[in-house]
What we know:
This protein is α/β, with parallel strands linked by helices and about 130 residues long. The protein is about 40% helix and about 15% strand. The protein has six helices and five strands.
Amino acid sequence: MNLKVGYQKLIDIAENEIKSVSISEAAILIEDKTVVFVDVRDINEVKKHGEIPGSMHAPRGMLEFLIDPESPYHRSFFSENKTFIFYCTIGWRSVLAAKTVHDMGIEKVANLAGGFSAWKAAGEQCSYVNKPT
């Protein structure tokens, strides 16, 4: 099978369009009330490995429905005038998610460079309590 565009090309395109935030930048932004960290990993990953404290969970497979105000699954925090920093384990799903969200019309989006793995490796704080989304 010959794909027109493979996953790596999609990631490359997204990385060229979406701002990346370093772990050190993110560690500062975690206290900023105008920024929302959005975890796009599967809930089982979140339960097993933890999450960035205060982050919101929006699984990648439901993202478009959670963002659209006309969807019955809409999450109101996506309608707020905030900057959304998306993250997953290593940054692939989250950069694709950030691009999708940007393509849907939310301008202030970014991707956490290196994802949650880099966050933990840098010794940043993790939470193991699942917050309601």
